């Protein structure tokens, strides 16, 4: 296993711990054990817990960004108005079902050190720029982002969870807002 793959294995193991057991259970010892490396091996890659958390956030943000880009690229034409907004909507809804990811990284950063959110803040600024240049009304595209982010966070924290039928209607409405017409 090369150095980079060990680093990734540690990050993914740490994300699984935080997701499964809660962010308070994530320790350097637990991450090392879950990744199958010594604590010294972990410290070689991540000299402290903040550096590990920062890497976890970067990994999750990069994976989400790649998921959105892949969904946007999968549309019929690159000039398809609203394609990026639809891709963001779909990726956000899909992220809720992933074993690790942005939800875990966000909760971890908020719990451990909110200053570690800089990567996510930068990613969100880029995503917002994409939305504003998506070929549909920038206000509609922004409303879609804010609404799906709100749905994601409501489901993440169990706040005002929607009945399945209403949830599907909300998603349908957001989807229609991304379509030219």
List the helices and strands and how they pair.
Blueprint: H1 3-21, H2 28-35, H3 39-45, H4 49-73, H5 83-95, H6 102-112, H7 118-132, H8 138-157, H9 164-177
What does this entry show, briefly?
With 181 residues, the protein is mainly alpha-helical. Helices cover 73% and strands 0% of the residues.
Characterization of this structure:
With 181 residues, the protein is an all-alpha fold. It has nine helices and no strands. Helix 1 packs across helix 2 and helix 4 packs antiparallel against helix 6. The N and C termini lie far apart (52 Å).
- Hey, roughly how much beta strand do the residues contain? under 5%
Q: Would you list the SSEs in sequence order as H and E?
A: HHHHHHHHH
N→C terminal distance: 52 Å
What is the number of beta strands? 0
Mean pLDDT: 87
Annotation keywords:
181 residues, mainly alpha
């Amino acid at each position: 296993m090369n150095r980079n793959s060990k680093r990734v294995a540690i990050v993914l193991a740490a994300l699984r711990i935080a997701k499964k057991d809660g962010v308070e259970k994530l320790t350097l010892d637990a991450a090392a054990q879950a990744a199958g490396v010594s604590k010294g091996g972990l410290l070689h890659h991540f000299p402290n817990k903040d550096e590990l958390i920062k890497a976890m956030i970067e990994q999750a943000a990069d994976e989400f960004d790649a998921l959105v880009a892949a969904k946007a690229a999968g549309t019929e034409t690159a000039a398809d108005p609203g394609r990026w907004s639809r891709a963001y909507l779909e990726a956000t809804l899909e992220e809720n079902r992933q074993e690790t990811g942005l939800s875990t990284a966000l909760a971890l950063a908020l719990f451990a050190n909110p200053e570690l959110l800089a990567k996510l803040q930068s990613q969100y600024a880029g995503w917002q720029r994409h939305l504003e240049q998506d070929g549909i009304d920038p206000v509609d595209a922004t409303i879609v982002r804010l609404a799906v982010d709100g749905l994601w966070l409501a489901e993440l924290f169990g706040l005002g969870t929607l009945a399945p039928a209403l949830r599907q209607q909300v998603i349908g409405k957001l989807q229609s807002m991304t379509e030219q017409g």
